[in-house]
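Postdoc handover notes: sequence design on the structure in folder B. Input tokens:
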């Protein structure tokens, strides 16, 4: 559910400039997060008779604004990367000026991951290389991809990235596995997560070292983001 944050923008006890929306971290800089392709509303209000309040600046041109005497709503729809950044709200009340900014962060995680292995079927005692690929990810800053062997985290993995026309990224991480680590029933999985005001994680795919190629194909399915 949206979190309402109360922001005092002057030394005076009244009035208050309010920013309502999916706001986080308002002890310092305010943040709001929106998923790529999703929607968000930022409501800036100033409870002051005869006052004015308005979202302003070039950074608001990628959204639509609905203004009323005491509040102004910035509508973000079908969010793309270019819509992220700092949004500024200005208010006036009895000759006093107020201002507050919120940093809108756009994030994207794929619906599925792709897991490939070399060789195609894992065999106990035989070395292998695992490749975990994800398409249309954003941002790279704050992105972490962790490999697991069973429940044991193997640490964050380095990954290669290619930027797309949508300013998103396709990423691929590679994990070499020694033969001694590939045993009957041993599972390897990958899990990418993005810290964008809040951590968003995608459950990774599972590769299981089994003798039967048919069982391997069974575990090679893709798990969708809940």
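Designed sequence:
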């Amino acid at each position: 559910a949206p979190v309402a944050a109360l922001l005092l923008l002057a030394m005076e006890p009244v009035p208050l400039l309010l920013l309502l929306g999916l706001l986080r971290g308002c002890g310092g800089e305010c943040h709001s997060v929106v998923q790529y392709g999703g929607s968000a509303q930022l409501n800036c209000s100033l409870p002051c008779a005869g006052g004015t309040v308005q979202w302003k600046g070039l950074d608001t041109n990628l959204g639509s604004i609905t203004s009323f005497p005491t509040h102004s709503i910035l509508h973000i729809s079908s969010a793309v990367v270019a819509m992220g950044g700092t949004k500024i709200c200005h208010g006036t009340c009895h000759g006093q000026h107020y201002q507050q900014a919120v940093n809108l962060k756009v994030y994207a995680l794929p619906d599925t991951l792709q897991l490939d292995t070399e060789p195609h079927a894992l065999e106990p005692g035989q070395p292998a290389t695992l490749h975990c690929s994800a398409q249309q990810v954003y941002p790279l800053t704050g992105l972490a991809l962790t490999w697991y062997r069973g429940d044991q985290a193997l640490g964050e993995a380095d990954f290669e990235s290619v930027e797309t026309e949508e300013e998103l990224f396709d990423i691929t991480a590679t994990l070499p596995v020694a033969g001694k680590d590939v045993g009957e029933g041993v599972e390897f999985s990958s899990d990418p997560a993005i810290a964008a005001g809040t951590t968003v994680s995608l459950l990774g795919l599972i590769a299981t070292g089994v003798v039967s190629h048919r069982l391997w194909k069974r575990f090679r399915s893709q798990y969708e983001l809940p």
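Context for whoever picks this up: The longest strand covers residues 96-107. Don't rerun without checking with the PI first.
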